[in-house]
Specification:
The complex is a heterodimer of chains A (about 525) and B (about 200).
Chain A: H1 2-15, H2 22-31, E1 35-39, E2 51-54, E3 60-66, H3 72-87, E4 102-107, H4 113-128, E5 135-137, H5 139-150, H6 158-169, H7 178-188, H8 198-215, H9 217-221, H10 225-246, H11 250-276, H12 286-289, H13 293-313, H14 321-331, H15 343-355, H16 359-376, H17 393-400, E6 414-415, H18 418-427, H19 431-442, E7 445-451, E8 465-470, E9 476-477, H20 478-486, H21 495-498, H22 501-510, H23 517-528
Parallel strand pairs in A: 3-4, 4-5, 6-7
Antiparallel strand pairs in A: 1-2, 2-3, 7-8
Helix pairs in contact in A: 1-5, 2-8, 2-11, 3-4, 6-7, 7-10, 8-10, 8-11, 10-11, 10-22, 11-13, 13-14, 13-15, 13-22, 15-16, 16-18, 16-19, 18-19, 18-20, 18-23, 22-23
Chain B: H1 13-34, H2 36-39, E1 51-56, E2 59-65, H3 85-117, H4 131-139, H5 159-168, H6 172-194, E3 198-199
Antiparallel strand pairs in B: 1-2
The chains are: A alpha/beta (about 525), B mainly alpha (about 200).
């Protein structure tokens, strides 16, 4: 149904704002052969340049993205930024060329005649002053380029197409439907069918990024940064899975992965800015918000902490560090668990606190988190325990408030997240704390799922693999416990994830069922180094 | 049963989807009623993968694959209009009966295999059950006790053997032997409880 796809992409393009089409536009440029050098996080404009690239000949290009029609009034309004775009040289370590950059004004609307005439006049003036003239890319040309690049990789069979439409039409205020997006990505990427060429896989990866961008139209419009973040992490994980599965050379997939990671980081930057401008964290209907308020706080604590940890690991400081420090301190008492899928948020927050120097408070947070899991999953009164990490926050909250039928699964007596937390405390020599809890821990079946193939770690649900159910020692030697926590074999993790511990921090929040002992050790190791 | 020739008559897919969920829950509940001993066993869902690896007492860890059990369901077009109320309940009951039977068979087989593997099986070679044999078997059983010191769990046996064992209740010698064995098991349990700790 190519006609429908054209209409969908056209509708997406015209409805998008400059933030929501930025990543797909970059993917478009990359697929056309340009090398992405810089993508603005959409804070204050940086010299008028939203995207900086090198073309095939190595010549720098700078793009400024706008949304909607550009008439004379718009042109005049943006003239200052466009002067910067054209006249200010690119100041970026990735650009060593001394050649003048080619400036582009891009919009997903039309550039009206009066504005075009103004641009022509401005270009004459710029030429006289030896600047490159401003090029324009408007809706028609942009749409055509998106349609060409998608080629045959958009979901074309009805079941996948239905999933695609459902994602596009989903209310942007809702949490991301991760299983659905995963299904869509699996229908595009050659991970169940490896009979493809490297070129075909590269095009499929580009399409996966574009399709994720299309699916995020509503969340972007609603400023639902959490959903945007999760979608880009999911897409980035599938890029890693595909690369690992098909042994694709880095040059063929790293560009698509980087775009997904930047999309996720920009969403966290926006979330951080939103939090910084709020006096409270209440959202929407005040009658009902109390039911989800603490879950929201927990999510935000994990997300902002993860953002900071990413920057710590990649050694890229940012301006919001002190705000995050205050935020974590202020909202720590309001964190609550909805299930075991909340635990990565607690542990990531603890790691951030530890990095801030609040060692004791960080360890206390993990001890309290463990105590809660042990207490709730140690009940003998017939009430259900904490839903496992396979239950998303909303699913778990629906169970808690009896909005859904009880699940046919017992959570009491088991835990997926206790073992990583034991390791966390053992590596910090919290022997006494563990000793106090050990009797309760010994009664729990500690679970961990290990995919059969490394690439399936980054897949939403692995087809192969083993669920390990283990009991800790009773008695347990402290020395042996410590040794085991320190000597965990990280080679079980996929290579591409091992080499990206910063991404692993973000991955742990989006894939809580992959929050294993090894993943936590990887993150801790990266922070320590 | 599918749609003929790709045409569709007026239908209510969402409503039917919810009703089907209700029917599946009813089947699950009824099968648990028919196999109460299985209902007492905790269940968990493995959300991905194909195998489960677990620890065993006094034996190495084991990795098991899953087995599928299923019940063929036949519904004729003629049945459909009246497949509500009591008739639907009867159908659910029959399916639940079959599922419970298959689950019990699977449980008994796995139970027996596990007992054999860890050396807990005792073959009397066709001889009648005696108190000595019974105590010999109990010695091999890993027993758990509640905080009040009462034995937890249950013994499963055939009705005929249960009758034999019931008759031992009136024999003070046998009961004294039994109580002494349980006391020893309770002491062993207390030792295990004392060992649930982090040591040097």
């Amino acid at each position: 149904m190519p006609g429908v796809i054209e209409r969908i992409i056209e509708n997406w393009l015209t409805s998008a704002n400059e933030r929501s089409y930025q990543i797909p536009f970059c993917q478009l440029l990359a697929a056309e052969g340009e090398t992405i050098v810089y993508i603005s996080p959409h804070g204050p404009f940086e010299q008028g340049k939203d995207v900086i690239t090198l073309d095939k000949a190595g010549k720098p290009r700078a793009y400024q993205l706008k949304n909607g029609d550009i008439n004379l009034a718009e042109w005049r309004k943006h003239k200052g930024e466009l002067n910067d775009l054209v006249e200010l040289p690119i100041s970026h370590p990735g650009i060593t060329s001394t050649r003048q950059h080619i400036p582009y004004l891009v919009t997903n609307g039309e550039i009206k005649d009066p504005a075009l005439k103004a641009i022509t006049a401005a270009n004459q003036a710029w030429r006289k002053r030896k600047y490159q003239p401003l090029r324009t890319i408007a809706k028609g040309a942009l749409l055509q380029r998106f349609l060409v690049i998608n080629g045959t990789y958009l979901p074309h069979e009805l079941p996948d197409f239905t999933v695609f439409l459902e994602l596009i039409l989903r209310d942007g205020h809702q949490p991301l439907d991760k299983p659905k997006l995963a299904k869509l990505l699996e229908s595009i990427l050659p991970i169940t069918n490896t009979k493809t060429t490297p070129g075909g896989t590269k095009r499929a990866l580009a399409s996966a990024v574009l399709v994720t961008g299309y699916a995020l139209e509503q969340p972007y419009a609603a400023d639902n940064h959490w959903a945007v973040f999760e979608a880009w992490i999911l897409a980035g994980s599938y890029v890693l899975a595909t690369a690992e599965k098909t042994h694709l050379p880095g040059k063929d997939w790293s560009g698509s992965f980087d775009l997904c990671e930047i999309g996720a980081l920009n969403a966290l930057a926006s979330l951080c800015r939103d939090c910084a401008h709020r006096e409270h964290l209440v959202e929407g209907d005040p009658w009902t918000d109390g039911h989800v308020y603490h879950a929201r706080v927990t999510l935000l604590m994990g997300l902002l902490s993860a953002w900071n940890l990413y920057h710590r690991i990649t050694k890229t400081p940012h301006e919001q560090e002190s705000f995050i420090r205050e935020f974590v301190h202020q909202y720590l008492p309001s964190m609550k668990q909805w299930g075991e899928s909340a635990v990565p948020h607690f542990v990531i927050t603890a790691l951030e606190m530890e990095a801030q120097g609040a060692q004791h408070a960080a360890e206390t947070l993990v001890i309290n988190t463990m105590t809660t899991v042990l207490a709730v999953n140690g009940r003998t009164d017939g009430r259900p325990g904490l839903p496992s990490p396979y239950y998303a926050p909303e699913q778990a909250l629906r169970l808690l408030y009896n909005l859904d039928q009880p699940v046919r699964e017992d959570f009491v007596g088991t835990s997926y997240t206790i073992h990583p937390m034991i390791d966390f405390l053992a590596r910090r020599w919290r022997r006494q704390a563990l000793k106090t809890m050990w009797y309760t821990i010994t009664g729990k079946s500690l679970k961990g799922f290990y995919p059969g193939e490394p690439w399936e770690w980054c897949r939403w649900r692995a087809q192969t693999g083993t669920l390990n159910s283990r009991f800790v020692g009773s008695p347990q030697s402290w020395a042996a416990l410590l040794q085991e926590a320190q000597d965990l074999d990280l080679s079980v993790l996929p290579e591409h994830l091992r080499y990206r511990p910063g991404f692993a921090v973000l991955f742990a929040l989006v894939f809580p069922h992959r929050f294993t002992r090894e993943l936590l050790k990887l993150i801790e190791g990266a922070l320590a180094s | 049963m599918g749609y003929d020739n790709g045409h569709m008559l007026p239908d209510f897919p969402q409503l039917k989807s919810e009703l089907r969920d209700g029917i599946l829950r009813a089947i699950h509940g009824a099968s648990r009623m028919k196999a109460p001993s299985l209902a007492e066993i905790k269940t968990f869902v493995q959300h991905e993968g194909t195998a489960h690896s677990y620890d065993r007492i006094d034996a190495p860890s084991k990795t098991d694959a899953y087995e599928q059990i299923g019940v063929p369901i036949e519904i004729t077009f003629a049945e459909v209009p009246d497949l509500v109320g009591e008739r639907l309940a009867a159908k659910i009951d029959a399916i639940a009966e079959d599922i419970a039977r298959q689950e019990m068979e699977l449980f008994n087989r796995r139970f027996s295999e596990s007992a054999q593997e860890v050396g807990n099986a005792l073959d009397a070679g066709g001889a009648p059950l005696t108190p000595e044999l019974f105590f010999q078997m109990l010695e091999r059983v890993h027993m758990e006790f509640g905080p009040d010191g009462q034995l937890l769990g249950q013994f499963r046996t055939s009705p005929a053997l249960a009758k034999v064992m019931q008759s031992w209740h009136d024999d003070p010698t046998i009961m004294a032997q039994y109580n002494a064995l349980i006391d020893r098991k309770r002491d062993a349990w207390r030792d295990r409880e004392n060992n649930r700790k982090l040591v040097d």
